Fold this sequence. Notes:
The structure holds 2 protein chains of 2 kinds.
Chain A: E1 3-8, H1 9-19, E2 24-27, H2 34-46, E3 52-55, H3 59-71, E4 77-80, H4 82-87, H5 89-97, E5 103-108, H6 122-125, E6 133-136, H7 140-155, E7 163-168, E8 176-181, H8 184-190, H9 219-248, E9 256-259, E10 266-270, H10 274-289, E11 293-298, E12 300-302, H11 306-313, E13 318-323, H12 333-341, E14 350-355, H13 365-378, E15 388-390
Parallel strand pairs in A: 2-3, 4-5, 5-7, 6-7, 10-11, 10-13, 13-14, 14-15
Antiparallel strand pairs in A: 1-8, 6-12, 9-11
Chain B: E1 2-9, H1 14-27, E2 31-37, E3 46-54, E4 69-72, E5 92-96, H2 106-111, E6 114-118, H3 120-128, H4 137-148, H5 153-159, H6 166-181, E7 184-185
Parallel strand pairs in B: 1-4, 4-5, 5-6
Antiparallel strand pairs in B: 1-3, 2-3, 6-7
Helix pairs in contact in B: 1-4, 1-5, 3-6, 4-6
Amino acid sequence: xxxxxxxxxxxxxxxxxxxxxxxxxxxxxxxxxxxxxxxxxxxxxxxxxxxxxxxxxxxxxxxxxxxxxxxxxxxxxxxxxxxxxxxxxxxxxxxxxxxxxxxxxxxxxxxxxxxxxxxxxxxxxxxxxxxxxxxxxxxxxxxxxxxxxxxxxxxxxxxxxxxxxxxxxxxxxxxxxxxxxxxxxxxxxxxxxxxxxxxxxxxxxxxxxxxxxxxxxxxxxxxxxxxxxxxxxxxxxxxxxxxxxxxxxxxxxxxxxxxxxxxxxxxxxxxxxxxxxxxxxxxxxxxxxxxxxxxxxxxxxxxxxxxxxxxxxxxxxxxxxxxxxxxxxxxxxxxxxxxxxxxxxxxxxxxxxxxxxxxxxxxxxxxxxxxxxxxxxxxxxxxxxxxxxxxxxxxx
Amino acid sequence: xxxxxxxxxxxxxxxxxxxxxxxxxxxxxxxxxxxxxxxxxxxxxxxxxxxxxxxxxxxxxxxxxxxxxxxxxxxxxxxxxxxxxxxxxxxxxxxxxxxxxxxxxxxxxxxxxxxxxxxxxxxxxxxxxxxxxxxxxxxxxxxxxxxxxxxxxxxxxxxxxxxxxxxxxxxxxxxxxxxxxxxxxx
Lengths: 396, 186
């Protein structure tokens, strides 16, 4: 029987990993993720979770242990943030290159300097080319549910890729709110044990992994297979969302979720916690001011849901992408990929990009409303001048 | 929706107070949300924790800018910031202050529609003994229940085991009751 409890995002994620019956948990502490590590250690200590907790000496080692453990067929879980996640970077390629479906809670925190423990998405978006599936969540409940879904997606034989479940530090990790903790028996039915055939370090079944591919032998084919797996993950994420919905009564929409898009002329597109406040803004503008505006929440950044985004955005006049990150010298990471995905289509909407909420700066209802109203005013422009906009810079 | 800001210093338990209040509200069937304004919460540094309480799931994820209720756990915070600066015109404030509130500056009294004090430091010393930083959080939650009357003192009691080891629950329950009884309206 499911029970609802007051939980922080961090504890909700830890309960998700416990219910997934993870077997090895190597973690190195870093704020804002540390509560996950503490809770996992407590689960192991109390016997609620039958797992090996490995207190490693660095994040780089955390991922090394995760890779080794997963390669022996153990379901593995870790968590990191900011500099810790960046420090793991080279091993993230190893996890995906060896096709090991490790799951990690990527609790977003700004990369310094200057140092802050507050969030933006720069740390996980920086890992975009490592071959990890990346799913962004906007609440403690979604983080809880998606940790469990992540194993089913990553371990699917059509996918076999590691998965990062991303949620913003402080805004989700430290928010305490009602969360329904899933029932273990139902989770066991939803998520069968991990029984790999493709990579398994087992003395009874000798297998060579992590080979050299010198002389242009098969490197291209390895990479191509990862790309094929990422493409396959799109369908698997949608399927898992459906099966999860049937089992637990909650669906999130797969790669993107849309609201009030049927007759929308303009839309806000965002990800993570900003989707919550943006939803409230869109609801109010629809109800009180009759503005035909919709919301697109990007749930999955890797694989990038190009077909879904084209379908939902094609007939709009204008779209504003609000994101808590920036690729310095270019623009917001999501905007850049969206612009690529909508390129050279006669029915493409005008695009603007709002760089907002960096370093955890609060993004208020009024600010999102201001952006939405501005977007509506600009909707019939010939072109968007100055499309990449730094919204909250003081002194400008 | 009701919004509550709890001001304290790192080590006084402002974040825990906010979580206990939200858990008590959850026990009464509300959909609460609580979170700290996080600055690392160094010992002694100013801390603010926010609580939202509503009858339906709360969708917004932003700081609280116009609280209905403000709880101030340490009067010396007024030397650094004004915890009452953004309170709603019809707001309620509960301040940890000695001597039944006598001597409170008139600027504070005039700022708030509904003002209460409780000598939570004295109660903390009686109950928990002398600590470097007086632990005033649960006492102020008792005072909150008496002043605001939306959450019952019993719901605070029911929430306590989620936050304290078994042997500390009754001690904190006593602190809550003392806070409730010793509230003074101005």
